[in-house]
Write a structure and sequence with these properties.
binds nicotinamide-adenine-dinucleotide, 7 strands, 7 helices, Rossmann fold
Length: about 250
């Protein structure tokens, strides 16, 4: 539905249920906390424990349920989403932040197991989550935000080909979903962040001094973009890949 509000209430997620993957730490954690502050009830998915995220949300007076799942496992994702929705209930928002960087940064040493591992979590994992939530959004609409990467747009800075391919694939998935589901008022967008100060890139040789802002993004700065794309404020935005890279790449 068209949003005609322009104040802070346009960014409210009051009364909404949001599923956030990769919620143990980093961008997923910051997004879950930001959504809680915006009024959402959140369901957290990760392979790691999410105690810290749950604690942060509870200390804000919010509600969070944690589901320990590997997003590349289709039936585990379906079970978690069913649990989050309380059976056949609705889901309003999905943010997919779960991903791995992979151990291979060149192509010569890329083997099948590594390719399948990276595509399995990043690409298949995103698709399984999208597939699981769509039937729970179709009656009333919803917002899907997939975390892609600048690497998927420019071929990577230091990341390897499997990671880059997975992120380019995520950008394509949101465009497909945006077209296929627009009639159901389901919005699908991606965010393509540049380097973010999280464990994913720690010790991997990324430098901030060549960036226009001379610093990496903080996870909360990606969470803010996710909040815009998850909220009524973005009611005419779908099928986009939003650059959040501090001016490093202007596509
Ligand atoms: N850090 C960066 O510089 C950067 C840049 C661009 C895009 N991104 C993207 O941002 C998103 C968040 O990454 P981050 O920087 O917060 O990294 P992170 O490593 O801190 O967080 C990733 C989270 O995903 C979880 N995860 C990994 N495999 C999983 C699986 N199979 N099932 C469920 N959960 C799994 C991890 O446990 C972790 O909590 C990712 O999609 C990443 O590709 C990161």
């Amino acid at each position: 539905m068209a949003n005609t509000r322009t104040g802070p209430e346009a960014f409210s997620l009051e009364g909404r249920l949001a599923v956030v993957t990769g919620a143990s730490r980093g961008v997923g954690q910051a997004t879950a906390v930001a959504f809680c502050r915006a009024g959402a009830r959140v369901a957290l998915l990760d392979v790691l424990d999410m105690d810290e995220t749950v604690e942060q949300i509870k200390s804000l007076g919010g509600e969070a349920d944690a589901y320990r799942v590997d997003v590349s496992d289709r039936s585990a994702v379906q079970d978690a989403v069913r649990g989050a929705a309380g059976g056949a209930g609705r889901i309003d928002v999905l943010v997919t932040a779960a991903a791995i960087y992979g151990d291979t940064t060149g192509i010569d040493d890329l083997d099948e197991a590594e390719l399948e591992r990276v595509l399995g979590v990043n690409l298949k994992g995103t698709l399984w989550c999208v597939q699981a939530v769509l039937p729970r959004m179709r009656e009333h609409g919803g917002n899907i935000v997939c975390i892609g990467s600048l690497a998927g747009k420019i071929g990577g800075v230091l990341a390897g080909p499997a990671y880059v391919a997975s992120k380019g694939g995520i950008h394509a998935i949101v465009k497909w979903v945006a077209k296929a589901e627009a009639a159901n008022k389901i919005y699908a967008n991606a965010i393509a962040p540049g380097a973010i100060d999280t464990q994913m890139i720690a010790g991997k040789g990324y430098q901030s001094n060549n960036l226009p802002l001379k610093r990496f993004a903080q996870p909360e700065e990606i969470a803010s973009a996710a909040l815009f794309l998850a909220s009524p404020a973005s009611s005419y935005v779908t099928g986009t890949v939003m650059d959040v890279n501090g001016g490093f790449f202007m596509g």
